Amino acid sequence: MSTRPVPTAPESSGLAALPAAAENDITILLPKREPVAARTYGVRTGRGLPADRPLVLHLHGGNFANGDLDDGRAVARMLVAAGATVVSMAYPLAPLHPFPDAIEVGYEALEWLYKQRTKLGGKGARIYLAGEEAGGNLAASLALIARDRAHPPLAGQILLSPMLDPCAGTASLRQATGDATDCKYSEGWQKYLRCPRDAEHPYAVPGSSRRLADLAPTLVLTGQSDPMRDEAVRYAKRLEEAGIPVRSEVLDAAKGWPEALADPATCIDCPCAPLVTQRFREFFESTPTQPPH
Fold first, then answer.
1. How many CB atoms lie within 10 A of CB 90?
2. What's the gap between Cα 256 and its chain centre?
3. pLDDT value at residue 2
4. Which of 73, 83, 102, 218 has fewest C-beta within 10 Å?
């Protein structure tokens, strides 16, 4: 796979700057699909790597129809600051690529990551999923698929302001949109779902899945004024009721989520960045060092 360096976080960032050449654009070659663009963060080489370093497949936000690798930089850098190695992928976007294109490509990329785990994260690297907004939906969907196909073994999933409710009618979303007659999140769902029946599929709408048992441990973070707050909190509660180890928090300091998560300058320097990084670190430390194979 070819790589090229990407500028690292500036020294003025609220978080420690990443090592030189810690971010590289790569191309993931998939067996039966077009190559997928991705970006690695925090890949280390040489001896002395932690034996159980977290290795994260990250999916950016963008309302299913927008966004790119640059929009995932802030979250990826916070994950690295928490001790992880990250591969952020550019999944196919709607409406040209509606459900299930993104999760099919995502699952093949997850399998690729598992095969590359020792090279990217060191011996015994643990595999995680992470995503914000629409990427949070895709991460939750991939966790369901990995459970149903019994592979690859996941150590956990991290969902930030996940889009989980295509009805777009929660109180938190109504409060955020006010009297607006249009809703970009509703429009995103319409572009992503091919037809109304897709909304009944758990891989399209994991928030309405009827079977949540046996999923990986989960961290759910959202903001107090976040449009996705209610659906995120509800999903965390349902996971907990299904017996899944869940850490869930509504962060007062998370201002402007989920849009702020796509802007490194806004997100990395905001008061929530150290707290979010700490929650990532605590989650990594709380999950099993050796997930079942």
1. 21
2. 18
3. 44
4. 83
Distances (CA, A) of 40 to 57, 113, 237, 239: 10, 11, 32, 30
pLDDT digits (tens, 9 = 90+) for 32-43: 899 999 999 999
Torsion of CA 28, 31, 34, 36, to 10 degrees: -20
Q: Give the number of other CB atoms < 10 A from CB of residue 290.
A: 11
Burial of 58 (0-12, 13-18, 19+ CB in 10 A): buried
Amino acid identity of 42? G
Contacts of 185 (CB under 8 A, 6+ apart): 63, 163, 168, 173, 227
CA 20 to chain centre: 24
The Cα–Cα gap between 266 and 62 comes to: 16
DSSP track, the chain: --EEE-----TTSSSPPPPTT-EEEEEE--TTS--EEEEEES---SS---TT-EEEEEE--STTTS--GGGGHHHHHHHHHTT-EEEEE-PPPTTTS-TTHHHHHHHHHHHHHHHTHHHHH-TTPEEEEEEETHHHHHHHHHHHHHHHTT-S--SEEEEES----TT---HHHHHHHTT-S--HHHHHHHHH-SSGGGGG-TTT-GGG-S--TTPPPEEEEEETT-TTHHHHHHHHHHHHHTT--EEEEEETT-TTTTGGGG-HHHHHTSTHHHHHHHHHHHHHHHS-SS---
Q: Work out the average pLDDT over 82-86.
A: 96
- pLDDT tens digits, 101-132: 999 999 999 999 999 999 999 888 999 999 99
